[in-house]
Amino acid sequence: MQPSDDDDDVANLMGKFGAKADRYREIEVARVFTETPAPPPAAPQPPASTPIEPASPPLVQADAVAPGKTTTPSLRTLLHDLARQRQAQVTQPHQEPHVAAQVIAVVSTRGGVGRSTLASLLAILLNGADRQAIVLELDPQNAQHQHLGIGPQTSGICQASLERHSWRELAQTGYANTRLLAFGESDSKQLHALEQELKDNPHWLAQHLDELGLGEHDTLIIDTPAGTNVYQDQALCMANLIIAVIRPDAASHATLERLIASLKPHLQGERHTACWFVINGVDTSHALSVDIAQILENQLKSQLLGTVIWDDAIAEALAYECNPFEQSAESRGCQDILAIADKLHDQLESQRP
Ligand SMILES: Nc1ncnc2c1ncn2[C@@H]1O[C@H](COP(=O)(O)OP(=O)(O)O)[C@@H](O)[C@H]1O
Ligand SMILES: [Mg+2]
To answer: Using one digit for the tens of pLDDT, what is the confidence trace for 98-116?
Structure first.
């Protein structure tokens, strides 16, 4: 091999240092490069517990998280949350729509106390030539159709809301020309989606009521599920009048203070919401039931709208699918409810603008 120019350069240079060219060794620059070495490639992530849920790195080091604290939600969850918030902003006007109708929310702490019974019977009695009563069933029980003598309702406000349809065409006619907006049938997936919508949009009910175009001569009675829940929250936010139903028993007495405290925040708004109590189902054949009813009446005083005895005519009317005011209007229970409806009618008239 012929010596190259490079070999001569090396020989000359080595000669200057008194060394021989054959002692020369090429040095690999990369080996002596002294800058901080690049970090080793990240260790492979352990597989996520669910294959569809990609694991996202925690925002803080794992050892900085206090034991027992939840980890950061996955990116997928965060993206879904963001999309939901945007959707809520789109459908949510800056101002809550104004509803001209008088809105009554029927609530209770416990189930089976007679909310649906009172909602339907008061609607029957308040409905008249000058005033349309509408029952809105904001309760997945979907039982109100039975109270108002309408066939089972498959579709209702649940499905319509999820499919983004208006509630305008949904109302069915019940006893005494009352109108019912039934909840309709639902499965757990639909309920989950609907309840999330109610949580995300505090004006959800106001917007749907706006679609109905209710006037000041309409009375909307909202039947709600027992206890604190998203349906009750929405109903309470729209109500001019709250009717809290209690049973004359030890359990209702024990939870009365809690019920009053939970309703209080809803009485302080611009709506000037009034709250009244109904003691329902006094068993006149049991001294304890009568005595507890007496104690509750003393406690509630002017907050009491009325007391209704346990009347088989009311229970039978539901069982035999008839309007109790057509079958047994003279019964004591029906008379108690008539007295409550009279008082309510006067209250609604006094609240009219
Ligand atoms: N005052 C009453 N007298 C007789 N039966 C009643 C009375 N109030 C309610 N009921 C009956 O009690 C049961 C539960 O009433 P319901 O209105 O469905 O309760 P809720 O809606 O609070 O769960 C129904 O069978 C109903 O007919
Ligand atoms: Mg009910």
So the answer is: 888 999 999 999 999 999 9
* Ligand 1 pocket, mutate which of 118, 139, 259, 318 (most atoms under 8 A from CB): 318
In this structure, the residues whose C-beta lies within 6 A of any atom of ligand 1 are 108, 111-117, 280-281, 308, 310-311, 314-315, 318, 333
C-alpha 225 to ligand 2 mean position (Å): 6
Please tell me the residue having the least CA distance from ligand 1 atom 9.
114
Q: Using CA atoms in the order 159, 219, 114, 292, what is the torsion angle rounded to 10 degrees?
A: 150
Domains of the chain by residue range: 102-351
Nearest to 171 by CA among 128, 117, 134: 134
pLDDT of 41-92, one tens digit each?
444 443 333 333 333 333 233 333 344 445 678 888 888 888 877 776 665 5
Q: What is the pLDDT of residues 226-252, one digit of tens each?
A: 999 999 999 999 999 999 999 999 999
Tell me which fold the domain 102-351 belongs to.
Answer: Rossmann fold (3.40.50)
- pTM, rounded to two decimals: 0.76
Kindly tell me the sign of the dihedral angle through the C-alpha atoms of 174, 191, 204, 139. positive
Ligand 1: residue whose CA is nearest its atom 16: 114
Q: How many helices (H) and strands (E) are present in the chain, helices listed first? A: 14, 8
